[in-house]
Specification:
Rossmann fold; 219 residues; alpha/beta; two-stranded antiparallel sheet; 6-stranded mixed sheet
Length: 219
């Protein structure tokens, strides 16, 4: 447990340092859904840093082996889960496939690229979990092939209650290398934001929709 917390704190620090995670409570970001948020995460930036990329790969591999042993297949969620998924599959010496957000509208109309076969044990790799909608769409696509999804591993989650409910309803175990609560602990330790900004981040975590609406009303 101590190692896991230390590793999660270290990764949160890495993500902040390279600006894969950006914090700006005073001038929030707008998500694709239109919701305003004081935090924005783009873990694809980690691919440009060998040390961090390797750390993420090894934490994924050790976590997967500890929880599930070696699966038959690693599946990445497009697009952010593809590259780390390939690295994990290569390290484990198992096949890899990835899932698109939706089926292609041409060619073979594939949603899954690569081979997924009935009866295979699968671990799915994701870079970021917000509400869990797109992540669980990938889980459903793999299950439709008759494969057994052992669980999903992701780099980071905002820890939203709706995501927890969605994963519970889908009967899919989610494991993340770090999360929003760990990030707040790191932010507090390192002084990345002022106290007022910290309180704003905490309020957002408790009720993102209310925080977003309140900011829009102020604007």
């Amino acid at each position: 447990m101590k190692h896991e917390l230390e590793a999660a704190l270290n990764l949160a620090g890495f993500l902040l340092q390279i600006k894969a995670i950006k914090l700006n409570p005073a001038n929030p970001f707008t998500w694709a859904s239109g919701m305003r948020s004081p935090i924005y995460c783009d873990n694809r930036i980690t691919l440009s840093y060998h040390k961090i990329r390797t750390h993420i790969r090894q934490e994924f591999v050790s976590g997967i082996m500890e929880k599930y042993d070696k699966p038959d297949l690693i599946v990445g969620v497009a697009t952010g889960g593809i590259a780390p998924g390939v690295l994990v599959a290569q390290e484990l010496g198992v096949p890899f496939a990835y899932v698109r957000p939706e089926k292609k509208s041409h060619g073979l109309n594939n949603q899954i690229e690569g081979l997924v076969e009935a009866g295979q044990s699968v671990v799915i790799i994701e870079d970021l979990v917000s509400t869990g909608g797109s992540s669980l769409s990938a889980v459903e696509a793999v299950r439709e092939k008759g494969a057994e999804v052992k669980g999903m591993f992701a780099i980071f989650t905002y820890g939203l209650s709706i995501a927890e409910k969605n994963f519970e309803n889908a009967n899919c175990e989610l494991t993340t290398l770090t999360d929003f609560d760990t990030l707040l602990k790191k932010v507090s330790e390192e002084g990345f934001v002022q106290e007022e900004e910290m309180q704003s981040l905490i309020k957002w975590r408790l009720d993102p929709e209310a925080w977003s609406n309140n900011f829009k009303n102020k604007g």
